[in-house]
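Field reference: sequence -> structure
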Amino acid sequence: MKTAKNMGISTVAVYSEVDRSQMHVQMADEAFCIGDEQGYLGMDGILNVAKDAGAEAIHPGYGFLSENAEFAELCSSNGVIFVGPPPSAIRDMGIKSTSKRIMSAANVPIIEGYHGDEQSDSRLLEEADRIGFPVMIKAVRGGGGKGMRIATSRDVFLEQLSSARSEAIKSFGDDVMLVEKYVDRPRHVEVQVFGDHHGNAVHLFERDCSVQRRHQKVIEESPAPGISLRTRTNLGEAAVRAARAVGYVGAGTVEFVMDPQQNFYFMEMNTRLQVEHPVTEMVTGTDLVEWQLLVAQGHPLPSTQQEICDRTRGHAFEARIYAEDPDDDFMPRAGPLIHLSAPKVTPNTRVETGVRQGDVVSHYYDPMIAKLVVWGKDRGSALRGLVRGLGEYSVVGLDTNIKFLQRLALHPSFKAGDVHTGFIEQHNEALFPNKPTKISPHAACRAALGYLLLEETPNTQDPFVECSNFQVNIPSPRTIELTVGDCDVIVVITPLSDGKYSMNVNGDVTNENNDMIVSGSLTKDIMTSSMNLKTTIDDITTSEKMVFIPGESHVRFSDPDSIHLYPTNGEESLKFSLPLPKYLSEFATSGVSGDPMAPMVGEIQKVLVAPGEEVAQGQPLVVMIAMKMEHTIRSPRDGVVESVHVAAKDNVARFDVLVKLVPEEEE
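Structure field:
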């Protein structure tokens, strides 16, 4: 939308009822509601908006109808330009079995597998046995990790097949599957291609998207680390052959799986602009959306292959900021963004987002909050910029993957470029460390100082008020109790002269000698709702962002006051909670049952058990859909189902009890 405005093109947005207040609605010159949360899939409704607004073209974005050949044809038949490839290319490349045959004929390497029409479970299992485990099960119309499962052995094949089929139906309305050999320790390397109506086709080099969770990308970079010049050249040429084979027009991505010897095989083609396209823009100096709009108008490609090669420079990373909990198997989260502030945008740092502070991340759609994109003159400098940017990102209200991304970017193997799709599993211990049993007393002092200075903030909305050098008249000691995760600390504070404090920290702390002299200041950030905390401890000064969130009482639980610290030195952020009053604490824990609960807001798809049924630990109980993904809720222990609290199609909130379990002897 920003690019269109820069080109002098007026924009019209469509939005669902749940997206009424979202950023894209405010940015557009006009905006039309298209109904409930399924409205983005309504082809006729969207086309009617285009006609009513007098729009000449429709840009389908990243998802929903962007790879739908029927929608592209509908646009064409109604005289509206579809900003994307011709329907024939979408159709050919959208069906994986068809695309494999076309690629083989175009001399693009393909991987061994079964792409046949016979789709019975027994036939697919037979083909998996023939290919040899492990195998990859994929929806033929799939993409974005949906409808994709890995079967490591014959024993789990049918369970994984059923799950992949179910997810494919939900996402694409088609459960036809293909089975392929799973390449051991593979890399996911993709090539950006572009074609026009004049027969021109170019590539804009490759991106490495190997680090993934749930078969979805986490961090992308360009160029791919450690790839030889010969491999890079072969990748680009193969991708252009793929584009030419289907008469491709517009932006597309040819995805390859690469083995440790840098042999690569065609995986699929995404016939749209990818979420990770900014890393390509950063290293090639292009605006790919501008290219899309120019090509859609009939213009030739703005650059030749040689011109692209001549200006390509440096290295770029993109980190996807998600509302999800990495410690809970990356379960998506939904809810309000109570506080949101991002790194400062510079020529080398981009923040692409569709949400603002106060917006709600809905369970109906993908939980991405933003994309942080950083460029550097080489991989090392770009990676340092990424780490710095992640440290400057602060989100309160929802769990996010930011700390996980920091650990990932700082991991020695990632820094060395030793990446593959099993990276997260291989380095699980380092990326998911045990929760600390002790915290730094310096961190506790910083939080205590911030809370003290915050209490003394004058009751005013003036953003220029500075709270510094606070001094009490009577130096009486004060105690502040703080909790970080499972760590409890007590800070005893005695005011001194000149705005200084003597602080003694006890409890779950790392050092024994915890007497410190502390001073500092707290100033409001006029651009965000955060504050800048400067702390001097024993003559050493640190600066960090601080966010204070007042506590609230809810029906199911109560939230205490919390202080969030975001250090500027690359350390992970910390959340300090102040203890609840006793009556609230008892209320907050009175409903905890240990029974299986909904991990997020969503819709129940299937209930797999009935009252009176014996279940084993790990057995699937309920399947729910949230954030367009299927999630299986499993039994936390052996027992007997006493009651089932949900049915298919029910909407559930986070922490709703789904199934009541009792020990077998009680039954």
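Note: The two ends are 60 Å apart (CA to CA).
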